[in-house]
Amino acid sequence: MTTPRRSVLYMPGANERALEKAKTIPADALILDLEDAVSPDAKEAARERVCAAVGSYGSREVTIRVNGLDTEWHDADLRAAASAGPAAVVVPKVNSAAEVHNIERALELGGAPDHTKIWAMLETPVAMLHAEEIAAASERLTVLVMGTNDLAKELHAEFVPGRGPLLGGLSLCLLAARATGRVILDGVYNDVKDIPGFEAECEQGRQYGFDGKTLIHPAQVEPCNRIFAPSEAEIDRSRRIIEAFEAAQKDGRGVVTVDGRMIENLHVDNARRVLALAEAVKG
Ligand SMILES: CC(C)(COP(=O)(O)OP(=O)(O)OC[C@H]1O[C@@H](n2cnc3c(N)ncnc32)[C@H](O)[C@@H]1OP(=O)(O)O)[C@@H](O)C(=O)NCCC(=O)NCCSC(=O)C[C@H](O)C(=O)O
Ligand SMILES: [Mg+2]
Predict the structure, then answer these.
(1) Reported ipTM
(2) Which of 134, 191, 212, 263 would bridge with 6, disulfide CB 3.0–4.6 Å?
């Protein structure tokens, strides 16, 4: 079964209004944040609020982003998240397989249910270089999440249209995700008023192969859902590819053309993936 993760919205855990409002926002999944969006003096209240809110969003995947491994809040965040039992614990700035093993152990010791997975954020130069070992470290780790603000900061890179300075790192993480069978989500777009710029970044992320994008504002949800869903034209072409290939196979042929382009079984696999996503998105 395909789980759509086109749009994954962060919400500051200390912001009661945003937590409430998110009940009506059609993001595929939610990240209730205890890390960067919460000031140090609000961390403990946010932890309690977020853990209490986990069950309030219907059938959507609800995750909790804990504070980083090297912070004073990390252990208590993980313990609280383990007993709240969200769909996943999102862990920022994961840099090695050993860190994933420690998180896995802490979740087990905290009695986390099996359905609580690990989503690892890749957002440092060392994480780009260790992406494959991080992705492969545990079966409990199901999703990689790009942290492009931290990555740009660490690289001393500038934010430019097209994201040239970040593309090397993004590509390494995509390779790691696909090599290990993990889902991978693109980073956030900071200018919440610039919807054309946001749409261009969604298009780029989809073309590179990301499964979806992390978001910071409700206005980003609709364009993101649209751009990461298969279009009517893609759905139609995928159906025709499958039909043409099945007909060709009955005639003993393993290759055929559709719209003048060569189709082999690998294209049929891709067409089936597109149709499964289209079906999942319909709900
Ligand atoms: C970016 C914002 C601070 C903008 O806030 P604001 O100017 O108040 O927005 P609006 O007035 O346009 O808000 C309109 C209404 O929408 C609600 N709202 C806003 N954002 C959210 C949200 N994320 N989830 C749910 N609801 C939201 C407002 O409450 C308004 O509601 P109402 O009053 O009823 O009309 C703000 O959008 C924001 O805080 N966004 C999230 C920021 C965040 O979570 N940051 C941390 C994650 S990003 C990150 O760390 C990435 C990574 O680690 C990296 O390194 O890249
Ligand atoms: Mg970050």
Answers:
(1) 0.98
(2) 212
Q: Which residues pair with 8 in a beta bridge?
A: 29, 214
Cα end-to-end span (Å), the chain: 12
Q: What is the dihedral of CA 104, 108, 113, 117, to 10 degrees?
A: 0
Cα dist. 146→74, 152, 154, 205, 250 in Å? 20, 11, 13, 11, 44
- Give the residue, by CA position, lying nearest to ligand 1 atom 50: 36
81 DSSP assignment: H
Gap between the Cα atoms of 189 and 32, Å rounded: 18
CATH number for the domain whose boundaries are 7-228: 3.20.20.60
Q: Where are the domains of the chain?
A: 7-228, 232-282
Residue 283: pLDDT above 80?
Answer: no
Model pLDDT for residues 30-66, shown as the tens digit of each residue: 999 999 999 999 999 999 999 999 999 998 999 999 9
Mean pLDDT of 261-276: 96
Q: Which of 186, 216, 220, 224 to mutate to test the pocket of ligand 1 (most atoms within 8 A of CB)?
A: 216
DSSP 118-161: EEEEE-SHHHHHTHHHHHTS-TTEEEEEE-HHHHHHHHT----T
CB of 22 closer than 6 angstroms to any ligand 1 atom? yes
